[in-house]
Amino acid sequence: xxxxxxxxxxxxxxxxxxxxxxxxxxxxxxxxxxxxxxxxxxxxxxxxxxxxxxxxxxxxxxxxxxxxxxxxxxxxxxxxxxxxxxxxxxxxxxxxxxxxxxxxxxxxxxxxxxxxxxxxxxxxxxxxxxxxxxxxxxxxxxxxxxxxxxxxxxxxxxxxxxxxxxxxxxxxxxxxxxxxxxxxxxxxxxxxxxxxxxxxxxxxxxxxxxxxxxxxxxxxxxxxxxxxxxxxxxxxxxxxxxxxxxxxxxxxxxxxxxxxxxxxxxxxxxxxxxxxxxxxxxxxxx
Length: 286
Ligand SMILES: Nc1ncnc2c1ncn2[C@@H]1O[C@H](COP(=O)(O)OP(=O)(O)OP(=O)(O)O)[C@@H](O)[C@H]1O
Ligand SMILES: [Mg+2]
What we know:
alpha/beta, Rossmann fold, 6-stranded mixed sheet, 4-stranded antiparallel sheet, binds magnesium ion
């Protein structure tokens, strides 16, 4: 299957044009888990100093795992993904990525920035906020230009990734004229073309039809099987068996209430009620 081949090749393609620089605050936190690629310690963040989003959040992301961020509306999942992608910076606490400290200052360093951006990709919940080029082909080419790939490498990667996502026929269309599901494929293509090691997905299955949801779930599983580390935010308990090795459950006070396997979390109805992931009158999840 084209997806499988590409993803596996991509996972083995470890050479990067600009490997993440490590001169900036290289030390990991002392208690970091073995195999961690990202490590957050005591993250706190409020919007406009008034609206709390994260209140003391610490965890590691382990290379090759599928980690689900779970919690009710407004608990802080999207904010955390933005922090992991270096789009938002915590008021306090630390984020380490691949051993280097992820800070606004370090991301201003071109080499660090390219290294980090080539290793972490973020698929937004709202594809309209992600796709902006005049054509799908240019949209997907954008990431390659960021990486500094030459024209031939860029063209080959674009063809590959468009075929992998089944959107070769959309290459010359304007992204803003596509349907929501088509835009989502384009947004994913624009991220995968950079061949990142870590993929962040915000509510990946939201607003997709059942067939497209199924396709995307399978794609995430295949990417993970090919070696990609996955972090995804979701409210959809039904996808956890497939999409989560571990779940990080947020409370509505913007803290982590529990870290456990999908089975542990799904089996804990009290927890799911407490964090508003099930309704008291709903059937037990299983
Ligand atoms: N731009 C913003 N300005 C002010 N407050 C914000 C902003 N974005 C988010 N917030 C607040 O931060 C908190 C966390 O929001 P966030 O979007 O991270 O939650 P979430 O867990 O992703 O929710 P959802 O499940 O609805 O997507 C919420 O209380 C929200 O009101
Ligand atoms: Mg969100």
